[in-house]
Write a structure and sequence with these properties.
Length: 354
């Protein structure tokens, strides 16, 4: 770690913020752009149509590049659940959806509310997910990285199994996109909220689709922004939606996308491979310092069982608790100083590995 890159220069000084799994920090460029936009808004000099509206497409294009998707097949919206609801609505009556039992509810509840249409959700232990995929399963819906424990899903194994059974795959990348390299090839959907590892304001989310799933989805949120020519779509019939998946977008929250466009520009500038190496190196060194095993699929999120209950707000750094376990997460603004501080404070209260 002697050649540790100094990505922290892109951020304001942070003091032991190890909780990107809850919320990411804005880069300086994003914060400055938001301040400037709010100032123009307050002074009545904002030109929302010319200056803000196109930034949603800028972020869309950069997200598509990040996950190796076709930008024309990427929809945007305010949150993961809003995006997943489009997929759930598109499934034919009687479809069976397979998920891990530990799955975050924004990637689960939208399917469960479709029970009245005969949509059945089957939840299994995350370690049994792959073997549970068979020809009766219409869709596997799984997080690329689990929010509760940081486990990195073996997406290649799921792709291989689903290619035999004809099962579609939808991946929630909210805890992955921004640090873990992802590839849309072989998947039917990647959905992601932007306010964590994509370092964006809340109110930004993405849905990249395969051709086959895109053809099934109805534009439930059809509005002026989804029009083929936005400036000509403000009033009156007929329905005239874009041929791209902008047809699926709810009307964007402008200021959220002002920040998102800058944040994704920075991530693209640095490169996901470099970010992966940085984040995983910090997490791996942290595990080594506290005498914990490094998983076979390394993660930027570390989940720890403690020997006694603690108040995380009393610690000299910021972490979170999920499922009764301490969750520590490492991203671009973190340094070896953060790793060593956390290791020193936590080593004596962590249960040894089984």
């Amino acid at each position: 770690m002697t050649n540790e890159p100094s990505f922290s220069i892109y951020f304001e000084d942070q003091h032991g913020f190890l909780d990107t799994a809850s919320i990411g920090l804005l880069p300086k460029t994003a914060a400055n752009s938001l301040h400037e936009a709010v100032d123009h808004w307050a002074c009545g000099t904002a030109r929302w149509f010319d200056d803000w509206l196109g930034l949603t497409d800028s972020a869309r294009d950069l997200f598509a590049k990040m996950v190796h998707a076709d930008a024309h097949l990427v929809a945007t919206g305010p949150s993961t659940s809003v995006m997943v609801a489009l997929i759930a609505d598109a499934l034919p009556p009687g479809s069976r959806v397979l998920t891990p039992a530990i799955e975050f509810t924004s990637n689960l509840f939208p399917y469960l509310v479709q029970a009245e249409r005969g949509i059945e959700v089957i939840s299994v232990d995350e370690n049994q997910l792959i073997e549970a995929i068979d020809s009766s399963i219409s869709l596997v819906s799984v997080s690329a990285v689990q929010s509760a424990n940081g486990h990195v899903t073996d997406l290649d194994a799921i792709k291989a199994r689903a290619s035999v059974t004809g099962t579609m795959i939808a991946v929630d990348a909210t805890q992955a996109a921004g640090w873990l390299p992802l590839d849309m090839n072989g998947l039917d959907a990647i959905v992601c909220s932007g306010y964590k590892w994509l370092l964006s304001p809340r109110g930004t989310a993405y849905l990249a689709l395969s051709e086959r799933l895109s053809a099934m989805i109805r534009p439930l949120y059809a509005n002026w922004y989804g029009g083929e020519v936005i400036a000509d779509s403000f009033y009156g019939a007929p329905l005239r939606l874009s041929t791209s998946n902008r047809r699926l977008d709810p009307s964007p929250a402008w200021l959220s996308w002002v920040g998102a466009a800058q944040s994704l520009k920075l991530l693209d500038q640095i490169g996901i491979e470099a970010i992966y190496r940085h984040d995983v190196a910090l997490a791996t060194h942290f595990l080594t310092l506290i005498d914990q095993p490094v998983p076979s699929r390394p993660s930027a999120i570390v989940s720890l069982e403690l020997s006694k209950p603690i108040d995380p707000t009393a610690l000299p750094f910021v972490v979170s608790v999920r499922g009764g376990r301490l969750r520590v997460s490492f991203h671009l603004y973190n340094t070896m100083d953060d790793v060593e501080l956390a290791a020193k404070e936590l080593k004596e209260i962590i249960l040894p590995p089984n």
